[in-house]
Structure to design on (988 residues):
């Protein structure tokens, strides 16, 4: 189907089913039960899952395939957001021109940065991209204030021209379909939100995923993996690796621009902090946590990080006491004190530790970890079916 | 006029004169061996041919065009392929993918944005790749990751990668080093076959005299960066200067 | 002319900090081949050694003075630092006043220990891993260290004054024949510059004149050969890492009166110091020092009003701009050896 073989078609169908069914699947607990706080099926969070999923899928095309570690990808995310908000200010609140412009602008920007940065490889490439991103970030706060609105951040004001607004909605919409509109379905104790914003972002992510699947299976994708494996040999084989890496860089920059545009479409705001290098670090983390170079790894990583960021920020010492009340008093205090360091404000600490643990113990990420586990389980099964050697999904 | 004309090439590394006034002509459709003791500058000379190094002075013409100052991929696209002294392969890719890449390079040139084509649908290229793997007896290893191959297999893979491009000039830097005797003989047979089948010119660096004398039609002896003599194998065998400079007491 | 001298002076203290951090980064990269993204965090930990000592010295016991009453009519509670009660008022006060320089004594063992644990516990396992992995794991470590400090000391900058004796400014202009008050330079910045000069000289002397240093330099030039000589490189590398950590830590301790420490200061300095290393030449110690000062001074020139009005925003990006130009035109940096990570 659609140029995919059987195995990839199945994978694609699974991803489609999971993405479209997410509003239900991510709300396994009844709305008024104690466990409802672990539900993730509300639009705001699900949107972040898929938008950061797009970002990570794109980053993976660069880092996962070519091995070029960019530490400045957040710049493209930020540029995409700014471009989208400008479209809202100048034209109307329709997201289509906004998304188109954010992809185009991020694409142009990444041609520029990529052209220069890709003249070096290894750690030099990382530092060049980092330098460009920090430069953009600093400029967004200083000289470029007329474009970025500095620390306040760029937003839509009522006196903006909005030439095409007419009688259209004042909030972001897709040809009249408002992003924040949603259908709420109640079934028994369960509540499910089906929101326009989520489904728009989800369809974008599915398209992005399909594209990356095709790239992975294409000669182009193989060339990118060859760059990572042995760039010298590639050159001596008659391939000019630079246009390949530049193409990968620009594609991943455009993915980031799309993600930035989508963020602005859900909430028409853009700030420079989206471009900071810690934000770039988060993109890297999502990708390696899920599994760089694997197909679904980046999405898994993005969902994992955004879910736990959300859950962990909600939990506090009080909540922990509630959970561990059954422990003897002294033990309970110690346990909650320790755990409290990692939740709420401590989320960043958890993130840092996660970063280290993944790099140390799970260089292949969660996807590879899962595969190893599955293989182990299969091996320990008495009927002795041989573990298959499927390459990373 | 040979297909490859090297004139007055010099290359210094700091104080070391690695190549001193090298003149060499390789005739089309011959196997030309370059021999010489360790450190004679043989690999350095090849590096100057494929764009890895740029000589300090001199000219290198291939089929009437200068190769100097061109990028390695451009030189390869002109028709020169090289097997390296230490195998250069795509170690994280499968054996099959390793030979697919030169096939694509040959058909599509240095760059093509084939992001939406699927490898599985490229029938012609897959057939080519399978054929060459069959030629080097590696078809059954096609799905192995290249880094897990034995040293000899890595060499054969690299040779397959170069041969499948059907280059006009094939440069081989000690293609049989580290191979078992049987494998060496297979390699000699393979190169002879290829030679017979296709119009391929070869420049081969080798320490193994058995290989040299089985294949070479002309031999250049390089010592301390300068060609000592160039002649047919028969004449080289008996040449006193060569015995002295290179072969020493070795039985030929 | 006076403006130029002023900018050079202003650039020196930031340049000193860059130089010291870059020196450590280069030592680690040169000897261990490790790209340490946690080096900025070491600078930050050093700074917080000063904060910790200041807090420690400030610990007071509360006594009740019956002879005085507060505004509610209760007996007045008097806080007396323990130091004062132990060593007498004057000496106790002096210790408190001098807590920043004294923190050096605390920072040296702390930083050596942190460096030791870091190298043995983590970095050691990454010698052979790709640079990308090293960057990622040390980046994670930097976040962890930063968050731990944030937990104990909060997120706000903590003022840590220099000793009272250094609080004024030197009228440097008068010394060299300008009018009064055109080139004034705070004493502490002068101290910082001299201090970093001493540290840099000490590191170079150590590398130049001790056998240990000789091995390290040989190792930086050609790691494999030194390994073959049967020298126990591992132990020396661990020590080297500790020294680099200590240098960064000391740079941090003494910087606190110039910039009130916050938990995130390390990251800011790290990014710039990396740029400094790249400009100086990966693996070149003199290059790191020189480009540290150079970029510090350049940055201070770029923040002159005349320059800013000509090229708005240049002060924000000058360092990155220089790095990009250098990397593209001379990838091995100003003083890097040919062939060291040139690609
Ligand atoms: N990039 C380089 N920089 C400095 N010196 C080099 C470089 N490449 C080669 N040399 C030196 O040039 C000389 C010739 O080296 P080359 O590798 O060409 O010898 P060779 O004939 O191929 O020897 P072998 O039979 O051992 O492969 C040697 O002394 C070598 O050390
Ligand atoms: Mg050689």
């Amino acid at each position: 189907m659609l140029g995919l073989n059987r195995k990839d078609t199945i994978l694609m169908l699974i991803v489609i089913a999971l993405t479209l069914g997410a509003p239900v699947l991510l709300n396994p607990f009844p709305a008024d039960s104690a466990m409802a706080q672990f539900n993730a099926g509300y639009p705001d969070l699900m949107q972040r899952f898929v938008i950061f999923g797009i970002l990570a899928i794109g980053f993976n095309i660069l880092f996962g395939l070519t091995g070029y570690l960019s530490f400045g990808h957040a710049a493209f995310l930020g540029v995409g957001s700014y471009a989208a908000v400008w479209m809202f200010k100048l034209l109307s609140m329709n997201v289509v021109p906004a998304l188109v412009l954010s992809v185009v602008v991020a694409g142009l920007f990444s041609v520029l940065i990529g052209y220069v940065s890709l003249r070096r490889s290894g750690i030099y490439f990382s530092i060049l991209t980092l330098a460009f991103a920090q430069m953009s970030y600093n400029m967004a706060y200083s000289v470029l204030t007329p474009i970025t609105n500095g620390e306040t951040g760029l937003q839509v004001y009522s006196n903006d021209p909005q030439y095409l607004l007419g009688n259209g909605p004042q909030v972001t919409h897709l040809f009249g379909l408002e992003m924040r509109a949603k259908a709420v379905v109640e079934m028994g104790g369960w509540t499910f939100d089906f929101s326009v914003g989520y489904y728009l972002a989800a369809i974008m992510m599915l398209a992005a995923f399909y594209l990356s699947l095709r790239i992975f299976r294409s000669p182009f994708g193989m060339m990118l993996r060859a760059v990572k494996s042995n760039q010298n040999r590639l050159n001596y084989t008659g391939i000019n690796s630079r246009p390949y890496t530049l193409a990968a860089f620009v594609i991943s920059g455009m993915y980031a621009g799309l993600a930035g545009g989508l963020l602005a479409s859900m909430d028409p705001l853009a700030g420079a902090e989206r471009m900071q290098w810690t934000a770039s670090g988060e993109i890297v983390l999502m990708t390696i946590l899920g599994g760089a170079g694997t197909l679904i790894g980046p999405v898994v990583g993005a969902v994992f990080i955004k879910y736990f960021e959300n859950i962990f920020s909600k939990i506090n010492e009080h909540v922990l006491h509630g959970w561990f009340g059954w422990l003897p008093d002294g033990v309970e205090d110690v346990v909650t004190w320790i755990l409290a360091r990692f939740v709420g404000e401590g989320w960043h600490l958890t993130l840092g530790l996660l970063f280290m643990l993944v790099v140390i113990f799970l260089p292949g990420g969660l996807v590879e970890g899962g595969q190893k586990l599955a293989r182990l389980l299969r091996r320990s099964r008495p009927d002795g079916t041989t573990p298959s050697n499927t390459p990373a999904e | 006029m040979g297909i490859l004309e090297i004139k007055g090439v010099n290359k210094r590394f700091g104080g070391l004169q690695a190549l001193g006034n090298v003149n060499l002509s390789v005739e089309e459709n011959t196997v030309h061996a370059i021999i010489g003791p360790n450190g004679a500058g043989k690999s350095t000379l090849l590096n100057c041919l494929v764009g890895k190094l740029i000589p300090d002075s001199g000219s290198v013409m291939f089929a009437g065009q200068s190769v100097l100052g061109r990028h390695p991929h451009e030189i390869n696209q002109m028709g020169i392929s090289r097997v390296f002294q230490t195998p250069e392969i795509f170690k994280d890719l499968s054996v099959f993918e390793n030979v697919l890449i030169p096939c694509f390079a040959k058909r599509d040139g240095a760059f093509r944005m084939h992001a939406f084509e699927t490898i599985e649908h490229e029938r012609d290229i897959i057939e080519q790749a399978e054929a060459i793997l069959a030629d080097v007896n590696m078809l059954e290893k096609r799905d192995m990751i290249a880094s897990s191959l034995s040293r000899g297999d890595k060499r054969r893979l690299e040779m397959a990668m170069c041969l499948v491009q059907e280059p006009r000039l094939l440069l081989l830097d000690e293609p049989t080093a580290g191979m078992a005797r049987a494998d060496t003989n297979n390699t000699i047979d393979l190169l002879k076959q290829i030679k017979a089948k296709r119009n391929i010119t070869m420049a081969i660096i080798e320490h193994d005299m058995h290989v040299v004398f089985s294949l070479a039609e002309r031999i250049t002896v390089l010592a301390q960066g300068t060609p000592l003599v160039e002649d047919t194998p028969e004449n080289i065998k008996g040449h006193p200067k060569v015995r002295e400079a290179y072969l020493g007491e070795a039985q030929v | 002319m006076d403006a130029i001298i002023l900018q050079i002076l202003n650039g020196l203290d930031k340049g000193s900090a860059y130089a010291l951090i870059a020196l450590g980064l280069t030592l680690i990269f040169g000897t261990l081949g490790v790209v340490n993204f946690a080096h900025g965090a070491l600078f930050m930990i050093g700074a917080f050694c000063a904060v910790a000592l200041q807090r420690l010295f400030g610990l007071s016991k509360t006594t009740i003075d019956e002879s005085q009453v507060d505004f509610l009519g209760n007996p007045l509670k008097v806080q007396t630092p323990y130091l004062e009660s132990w060593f007498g008022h004057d000496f106790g006060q002096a210790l408190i006043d001098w807590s920043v320089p004294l923190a050096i004594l605390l920072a040296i063992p702390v930083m050596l220990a942190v460096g030791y644990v870091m190298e043995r516990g983590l970095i050691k396992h990454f010698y052979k891993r790709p640079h990308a992995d090293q960057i990622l794991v040390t980046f994670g470590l930097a976040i962890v260290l930063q968050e731990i400090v944030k937990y104990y000391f909060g997120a706000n900058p903590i003022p840590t004054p220099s000793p009272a004796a250094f609080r004024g400014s030197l009228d440097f202009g008068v010394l060299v024949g300008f009018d009064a008050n055109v080139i004034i330079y705070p004493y502490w910045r002068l101290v910082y510059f001299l201090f970093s000069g001493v540290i840099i000289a000490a590191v170079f002397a150590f590398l130049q004149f001790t056998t240990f240093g000789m091995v390290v330099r040989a190792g930086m030039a050609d790691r494999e050969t030194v390994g073959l000589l049967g020298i126990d490189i591992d132990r020396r590398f661990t020590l080297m890492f500790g020294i680099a950590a200590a240098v960064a830590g000391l740079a941090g301790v003494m910087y606190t009166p110039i910039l009130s420490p916050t938990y995130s200061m390390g990251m800011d300095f790290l990014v710039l110091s990396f740029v400094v290393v790249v400009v100086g030449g990966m693996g070149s110690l003199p290059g790191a020092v020189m480009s540290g000062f150079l970029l510090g001074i350049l940055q201070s020139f770029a923040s002159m009003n005349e320059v800013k009005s000509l090229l708005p925003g240049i002060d924000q990006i000058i360092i990155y701009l220089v790095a990009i130009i250098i990397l593209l035109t001379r990838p091995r940096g100003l003083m890097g050896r040919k062939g060291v990570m040139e690609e």
